[in-house]
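Course assignment 3, question 2. Fill in each field.
Student: A.L.
Task: Predict the tertiary structure for the chain below.
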Amino acid sequence: MSDAEPDTPQAKPRNAILARLLIAGFMGCVVAAECLFAYFWLPSASEVAAQVEQLAQEAKTDAEASQDDSTNPAVPVVEVDLGKFAITNHRLPAETTFRTDFHLYGTVAEAEKEEFTQLFARNERRFRDQVIVEIRNCEVSDLEDAGLGLIKRRFLEKSNALLGKPLLRSVIFADYTFVEL
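Answer field:
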């Protein structure tokens, strides 16, 4: 019999240590492979910065393209009538009532006017409902704002979402009156 038989008490601890070393080595290889994969797959800080800058440039270009077309003479626009509104709202906690009257117009690219007219005719009642809800949800300070900027942005966002396309370029308030009763 040889002195290094597997059944001897000295061989068992050696096999256990060898098995543990093999498992530890295998786990080390897996962790090292994951680290290498992450190193090559994840972008570096400079690549991320370049991507962010590119996205910012694209957003800036998109914002300039969707600006009010009255400042961009390259795209001819036409005005469309969006309706007259007379909205009375009573606020219970403050026991105040206010009335807002206005005639709403919008600007649409001349090439998209026919499409806008068809979509608006199909969604006119929902558009009117959205306008009324937005006015009733506004703060008094928003309704007293000289430019009505926040309300215009909300109308544009809601109406273009309703139409399914960003056809409406800007919103124009005509004959606007706001009175607290």
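Instructor remarks: The helical segments are 11-41, 45-65, 113-137, 140-144, 149-163. The radius of gyration is 34 Å.
Grade: pending
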